[in-house]
Amino acid sequence: MTDNRGLVPQRLGEYVLERRLGSGGMGVVHLARTVTGRRVAIKVIRPEYAEHPGFRARFRREVAAARRVSGAFTAPVVDADPEDDPPWLATLYVPGGSLADRLDAAGPLPVAEAARVGAQLAEALRDIHRSGLVHRDLKPGNVLLAEDGVRVIDFGISRAMSHSHRLTEAGEVLGSPPFMAPEQLTGADVTEAADVFALGAVVAYAATGHSPFEPGTEPGGDPLAVAYRVVHEEPDLGDVPEPLRGLVARCLAKDPARRPEVPSLLRMASFADTAVHTVHTVHAVHPAPPAGPPAGAAPQAPAPDAAGAGEPATGPVRAGRRRARLVAGAVALAVAGAAATGVWLAAPADPDRPATAGTTVPDGGGERPEPAAAGPWEIDLREFGVDDAITEGFRCRPADGGLLCAQGPAFAVLLGSGGEEVFRHRGPRDAVGGPGALPGEGAVLAPSAAGVSALGRDGAEQWRIDAPELTGSLLRVGGSLALQNGDSTLRFYAADAPEARGEWTAPGRYVTQSASGASRLLVETRADATGADPLLMLLDDVGRELWAAPVGPPPEAVGMTELLGMDADAAYFQEHDTDLPVVSAVLRLDLSSGAWRRTELPRSAEPYASAADGVVYLPDATGLVTAVDTVAGEVLWSRPTGADQPSRPAAVDGVLYLTDGEGRLHEVAADTGEVLHVGAAHPGTPGAGSGGWAPAPVIADGVAYAVTVGNTLYAQPLERGT
Prior knowledge:
Layout: E1 11-12, E2 15-23, E3 27-33, E4 39-45, H1 47-50, H2 55-66, E5 77-81, E6 88-92, H3 99-106, H4 111-130, E7 143-146, E8 149-152, H5 158-162, H6 182-186, H7 192-208, H8 223-232, H9 242-251, H10 262-273, E9 280-282, E10 316-318, H11 323-339, E11 359-362, E12 377-380, E13 394-399, E14 402-407, E15 411-415, E16 421-426, E17 438-439, E18 444-447, E19 451-455, E20 461-466, E21 470-477, E22 480-485, E23 489-494, E24 500-504, E25 509-517, E26 520-526, E27 535-539, E28 560-566, E29 570-576, E30 583-590, E31 596-605, E32 610-612, E33 615-619, E34 624-629, E35 634-640, E36 650-652, E37 655-659, E38 665-669, E39 675-678, E40 698-700, E41 703-707, E42 712-717
Helix pairs in contact: 4-7, 4-10, 7-9, 10-11
């Protein structure tokens, strides 16, 4: 304590101040330690605020709320004393500088890095808002850069300050006008939307090195002039990279009601995060195609040998000509599609065998455990080293009466019907993306360092396909395996031997997505890395073209389209906005005639639809699901399901299954939308998991398996069976 106004004592509470870290309009920040050596950052409030009537009471309330905030991208408040002289607040010390320091030293961030910062800020704001707070002062100086992501600081004190200081006092401005929403500067009501405005301004600053309200100038100009531009003028976004520009523009809307909500920001930022990833070029020489209609005629498909919807392998199709935006969406969805492929694995390998292409490890020893009785069970996925199943691409599929789950090509685990672990498989040590494994004929086809390895029931490699640059698609197409090998070819092999069956090329073009079904493969390519001229081609199971000419998108499609799957008759797509991940229409492509049918939705949905039996099911964030009959081109029903923050739905035997944000399984009649049953909550691990969208439940042998946003996996027998 001290009686000298404005001086800071060497000790505050149990903390010994070591050195000054920085200062801002609200106070001075010091590095401090406890007697046990724990380091904290202490912000000491300036006297002019502390002496303002009512400040301490407001500060006390805001600090209490701030201490409830818990998240991966916030610096937690660990202590505070609103009654001390001076009042202070301690947060966990984060080594490393701020975003402002980083830009001062090295200039703007690459677009992918700026997008990652935006995604992490969105998650931080989600956690802050859940505690009933509005940050009110999100700016580059309040974004610290730790090794594992950003840390947002100074939430919980800005509101107390704002009641103690107004814009016009002494010609000063509380906060940083380039990152303040218009309503903050005009004295209107301030809501969570103000933080969305600030996020957009910070992302623009990170990607360009300057504020969109201070174009071409150094920050720190006349704050009143900047404040005027924020309130009355449109931001200058000319330097903002195209994949981020639409997001930033919506965040910076003058009207708070027109700004996106934080969950949409998180997902949109993840779209832009992959915008600069290189897409995969396809060159190949395919066998001579069969006789077909004259060039330019309607494409003709052969009679299918089997029916059933196929699974897309990678990202969206572009409709239209705004090129860079396709790259942002197409590659992001390519990554998501590849991660969702799932894995089927064989029996355990010899644990002493050297692992080169990957390792299959029994659980605890050489004997496979006896299968437990099927019944409800739940697993914390941290047991498998999975910290966030949703964002890390942890996906499951049925296998041998149990479940096989995978995290891309790097990891897979086989579970018995009772949840017991049979074995784990580790892929290449440096595997970070690409396809997961899938079943072959009497073997498991697993991505490896060499390409694709066929693993027997003992885990030993039986044969191998050399494809060291395996990426993009790895799909079963009838009796063949189709794979994309780096920037060279799409190759077709027998599914039971390393026997090459054919190759397909699209010289000078890039593959962006594909799906298989009825022993055929639908592939979309684009002309160059900018995403121009999207075209579709239908192939047979050895890579021969089944259409005389490729098919382009319908002229009425104005957004990006994602391939949901295909069956014997058609392929199904969802069309979403070029800037925001909201779906406005669904499309059906007749594989025999090449005719498109587009059906607009009565209201927008999220881009997490599923297709089954010619019907596309689209959820929105509130749990309202819309079912569209793509053959008739009409909405069958649109009804609330009660599944807030729903998963992608799965339609099986006339029932639609989806989970909500608390892990409850909702069963809905697929033909009417009537809610049939709602299961118990599975909230998962406190503080773990994600605010993203969970994958569709897996339904097999009368059991529903669900991965939750709370980072758990559970099994629940169905009352009606399947």
